[in-house]
Specification:
five-stranded antiparallel beta sheet, Structural Genomics Hypothetical 15.5 Kd Protein In mrcA-pckA Intergenic Region, Chain A, 268 residues, six-stranded antiparallel beta sheet, alpha+beta, Alpha-Beta Plaits, 31% helix, globular, 7 helices, 3 domains
Length: 268
């Protein structure tokens, strides 16, 4: 196992055992999609090699926003279920994560600010990447998911993004007023192979879809793939360089001719 994988597995082992032995909630920092894939690898490794079997009911990924991409992994104490955890986070101002609303002081003279601009301004405060989750931008406004422990720093010290003077306010996630834009798409496919699904989503020939995969233009759950025959599973997140990304929701029904009707959620 590579050293970075070994380190992460050790960290997951520690957080899980501490949650069980001390009966309190533990969590990681924000994980990217590839780090979430590593998390699942670590959980499988612990079960197969060390006999530490982490049940699905004992942990969850949470990012604040609906369908968040960057999430923290939470390991639950015995008295807490996933539903009770989420209910607490939704209603408790002292939840693990905070939502920071960032607005220009004078919208008329504001730059056109992007995800990169907001992220760069936060990291210039000396805040590590694993402290910040998704950054959702709209015209003249951004909502940022952060670890609660860093919320006051951002709220008090983030005063400029690019050349724009901004104000920051802590709000609830449900009141942020913006969310990623999605379009639900139903497609007709012969199989759940990634090349077949790419072809329907982006109107490509099978050869064109396969070429994207073979040239490392496609990632599934944060990891590049090179096998066009890779079968997608429900909740897989697919990114295609220069084209966009989507979530594969899975098969909905089988037609009389044996083809599949499947649902994908495409990011706009």
């Amino acid at each position: 196992m590579p050293q970075y994988r070994d380190d992460q597995t050790g960290r997951i082992r520690e957080l899980y055992l501490r949650a069980g032995q001390n009966d309190y909630l533990t969590h990681t920092g924000f994980l990217s999609l590839s780090e979430q894939a590593d998390l699942y690898d670590s959980i499988r490794y612990l079960g197969q090699k060390e006999g530490i079997r982490i049940k699905e009911s004992e942990y969850l990924l949470y990012g604040g926003f609906r369908d968040a991409e960057r999430c923290i992994a939470c390991f639950l104490p015995s008295y807490m279920t996933k539903d009770s955890f989420l209910a607490t986070q939704d209603s408790d101002e002292k939840g693990l994560l905070s939502c920071i609303a960032v607005r220009p002081v004078n919208a008329r003279f504001s730059d056109e600010l992007t995800h990169r601009d907001y992220l760069g301004a936060i990291m210039n405060l000396g805040i590590e990447r694993d402290v910040t989750g998704d950054i959702i931008c709209s015209s003249g406004y951004a909502a940022i998911s952060v670890l609660g422990s860093a919320a006051s720093i951002i709220e008090n010290e983030l005063v400029r993004v690019k050349h724009t003077t901004v104000t920051c306010e802590r709000i609830s996630f449900r009141d942020c007023g913006i969310s990623p834009e999605f379009r639900e798409l139903r497609i007709n496919i012969a199989s759940e192979r990634v090349d077949a699904i790419l072809g329907e989503v982006y109107h490509l020939s099978r050869a064109g879809s396969q070429e994207l995969v073979r040239t490392s233009m496609v990632s599934v759950n944060g990891r590049e793939i090179t096998d066009p025959g890779r079968v997608l599973k429900p909740k897989d997140r697919v990114s295609v360089r220069s084209k966009g990304k989507f979530i594969y929701s899975g098969e909905e029904k089988t037609t009389k001719k044996g083809r599949l009707t499947a649902v994908v959620t495409v990011y706009m």
